[in-house]
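Entry 14. Ran structure prediction on the chain below.
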Amino acid sequence: MKASDYSNEQLDQRMRSAGLRPSSARIHVLRYLEKNRNHPTADRIYKALRPDLPSLSRASVYNSLAALERSGLVRPLTLDGCELRYDAFVEDHGHFRCERCGAIHDFPLAHSEAADLCPDGFLARRKDVLVWGLCPSCLEESAESANEKQS
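Output, structure tokens:
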């Protein structure tokens, strides 16, 4: 079951189980992240929630994200060195970023694959695998564009 399918009471209990005091802002932020698996920035989350929550502040969103991260319910993701995005899927997985359209896609990452990335004698606590390239849609557009130029 996704957080978007949970009632507020169930999200409340999920947060309490993670050692986090639930608040309206935290519940809305977590629900948004579960519904929108596009790895949004804090600003995108704020702009999406603001119409339905006029009293919501940017600070509340940032504070909620920080608390959700500390409790292990949300994972931060840095893609361009300065752009921090958030992911509610916290299990080990990789990310593919399309160089053309900018879309980010999750892909499975076996535990053994991730463990192999860690040098001997080191203890990995978290793994971030980011692959850059062209997604299938952009790759198809690129091929079509090349075919048109040849015609």
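The mean pLDDT is 87. Will compare against last week's run tomorrow.
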